[in-house]
Design goal:
The chain has three domains: 7-468, Neuraminidase (6 Propeller), CATH 2.120.10.10; 474-592, Galactose-binding domain-like (Jelly Rolls), CATH 2.60.120; 600-736, Trefoil (Acidic Fibroblast Growth Factor, subunit A). The protein is mainly beta. The radius of gyration is 26 Å and the shape is globular. 3% of the residues lie in helices and 42% in strands. Strand 48 and strand 49 (696-700) form a beta hairpin. It has a six-stranded antiparallel β-sheet with strand order 49-48-45-44-41-52, with no helix packed on it. It has a five-stranded antiparallel β-sheet with strand order 31-34-39-36-37, with no helix packed on it.
Amino acid sequence: MMQSKTRSRRAGALALAAFTAAALLGSGLSAGPAFAVTTGNGSLVYAPPNGSSFNDEGGDATGTAYAKIVSLKYNGSSNGQLISSFDDARLIRDVNPSTNPTTDTQACLANPSLACHQEWPIFRSTNNGTSWQKVSSINPGLQFPGTPGQESSTQLDRTAQPYIYELPQATGGLAAGTLLFTGQIRPADRYAPNSITKLVVYKSTNQGTSWSYVSTIDTGGAAIYDPSSTSTTTTVWEPTLIIDGQGGLTAYFSDERQKANGVLQAVSYRRSTNGGLTWGALSNVSAPNDNTHRPGMITVDKLPDGTYIATYEVVNAVGYAFSNASPVFFKKSVDGLNWGTTTSLGTPVELANGRGIGSSPTLKWVPTGGPKGMVVVASKWGLDAAGNLDGGQNFFVNYNLGVGPWERLPFAVTFAGTQSITGFAQGIDYSADGRTLYQAVNVENYRPNPNNPSQTYLYNDIRVGTIPLNAISYEAEKAALANVSLVQQGDASNGSKVGNINFANSTVTFTVKAPTAGSYTVNVRYANGTGATSSHAVSVNGGTSTSVSYPRTADWGRFLWAQTTVNLNAGNNTIRFGYQGTFAEIDQIQVYQSTVTPPAEFQVVNRNSGKLLEVFGAATTDGAPVGQYGPTNNPTQIWKIENVSSNTHRLINKNSLKLLEIPGAATGDGVDAVQFGPTGNATQVWRLAPNTAGYWTMTNTNSNKLLEIDTCSTADGAVAQQFGPTGAACQQWRLVKEGIQ
């Protein structure tokens, strides 16, 4: 696939993409509670020193790419620590290799006889990503040294495409909690006749403090990026790791060595049963033999039902308006080894409206967000429904184990994804308590060339941001609005934001329902293209206003987060944002308490009718009937899905706080559903089971009957009832989160 380090050809391709785009665009494990720090566009992990970065074909400095992050979950008292690494473009000159390695890129480039190398730096945070320290580095040149004191085509001292993996279980002699690190290495001159690429593995048993070489997964030809149909390259790229369904260690990667079969590039794997010491036969996940499509940059994760999901980009994808759109596709497997027809590309990752994402995806399943958690994918840029580049400031998430439409979840950190290598191959993980999502990414930083101040170089800093997974989101466009305007934007949550909050009587008023009285954090996703800091007045329940500050964003299309604290009453509250002399736009707010994880909230949409499950008339009384109705934007159409066990749930109406039940614990067909206060009876408990079409069935645990709409009616006001399984669409439901209020 596409990669950064051949930071050369790949960076050139992305720079062209950026230019064209600019024209087009004008586990439930316990640990101390994590917390989300959303402001400041994340915390700084590393900023390349001036003059330290290089593009090995000349041209712009780039600095970093391939930011990766792991939140430790299988390391006992070290759980909650964060480990990060990245692709670092610095060249290190060994003045005294054992005691005094010195960053001196320019000297290394000017004098090939110097002992220079690259390394993978390892950074650690012990305070949820607020601050970072470098604790070690991995220098492959020590295992593949070539000629001492001299750069040569046999010295494998160029590093690229890192990936970190914490073993969730023991495998092949490696203990659970072992950190494995994999990446690509190559010689300094990859165009030499004997130039090669190797995919190597290292391990750490002390939370990244030190590392030892394990093995080489595979070897390919020179690291040259050429996606054309006439390409003759044989590179291996971008390794990642997972424990497969049979307990072995599987390494996935991009493979260009199958061109004799019409495969420009495949996403492939090799498997190890001895902890990565040796690797088995080559197999493919996706290997289209049309001499056109080029899947690459695969990541894989295990789902809670024991199946596996893989995402990857597809270069040269047919049917996309932008020629280098590199849309993200996915495939599923029962065990991480058997992926169906290998010539198949799989399925694109798209919203219900056809909007997608492209380039260098990273995949993670997280246990929070829905009845089966959610699949989260980060990518470099967004794509509109026609396949044009269009922003890219959201994770794409799926609550049905990857099947059916995807939704947006705002990034913690935003970046200019159409700029060169910026935002390339991000890292994502979740905290040990499941309440915080971490995003590691390289973010653009323009600086003058120290040797020519009139020239500006694009560097990339490594930043880590967090968003709360235990927050309830409220969309600005669904708030009570006065003298403002709606603005459509593909990167906005739910596709819209609120602008022109420009007048003394301009207000955006959210109605927020708090389960208990107390102090709550409010994150505000905003855009401020004024070039200076702006602010809004914020009042709660009509009380005295305070001020929330909005540092400038790159432009009016770029989002960042502000944060404030409010005191809420139990039940309904209003949070009002008003004009305060300066200008900003609001996309959404997130409301949460750091140590509380409320049930996930969804609209429950009937597959047959497209209507929403609600308590009729927004009633709050016991025994009130439940049925379907078109969208009204009333909380009676929102349900809190509370886990009882891994497979059973309660559905709590957001308006009434009463539970969905079959009255009288009846077991017969055709008994109408109602709401009732909690009784502890199994008739208030439901088994939610996802199906292969992206819908759910809801089975009452008392009667073993399914929730359906009576006679499969499509009319407003049709009642919900229980009935034995018929396979009808009116017994299937979609869970929708984005945009609900």
